[in-house]
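Notes from the 1:1 (GR / supervisor)

We went over the backlog. Supervisor wanted to see one worked example end to end before approving the batch request, so GR pasted a single chain during the call. The sequence is below; no edits were made to it. Supervisor asked that the structure be written out right there so they could see what the output format looks like.
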Amino acid sequence: MIPSVFFIGATKCATTTLHSIFHNHCKDVYCGVIKENRFFSKIHQEGELSELYPSPGDAIISADFQPTNCVYPWAATRIKEVSPNAKIILCIREPIARAYSEICHFKQRMRGNLISEDPNEIIMENLRTLNTIEGVKYPFLEMSDYNSHIERFNNFETKVVIFEELIRNDKEVIGGICDFIGIERFDYEMVKTNSKSDSLFFSPDVVIKLLKFFKPKTIALSECLDKDLFKIWYRGDMSDG
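Structure output shown during the call:
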């Protein structure tokens, strides 16, 4: 069964948790044989989609969970070709915390491949080379640019799930996802998965630089979603500060 629902990311915004909930507790959704198959995000596609979604059983829809589909421009085109009426679910999170969590993830899984062990140096190098001819090896800031993800998938019916709202009121958020994709709500137990952050964070001066970088993007995104993300993410209105 070709997927008709795509959880496209962003990374470190609870895609794994959502997959666990739907895979383990929802009889109406078939999640395929591999969670992150990268069928749509790889530069060169490999294999057949039918091999990844061979047997839906009693499920009424199939869902694809790949938290990097949002950042690659060709992923949206490929999804449109095989599932033109697909519904898209984009998960977002306070952008600085998301970037830090992803750096921690990379440090654990790809030790030695980053320019430094210091998250401050890593993110500042990302900021320095952003939109330059040098390019960026690992797009931590780009992955937090949710406005661009929404624009890439503007030809689809899209629901944005906010990580912090999921943590505070998971039943309402999961129920909203069910309503959006057209299935009955179901019972489950919320278990946080795949956390890679440590107890540290970016230094205060780096945080200030990143807040300045993300401020106009957050203002635009708040307008797009008709939600005050400053209050959700920072528990106060920083849009004028």
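Supervisor's comment: The chain has a mean pLDDT of 89.
Batch request approved.
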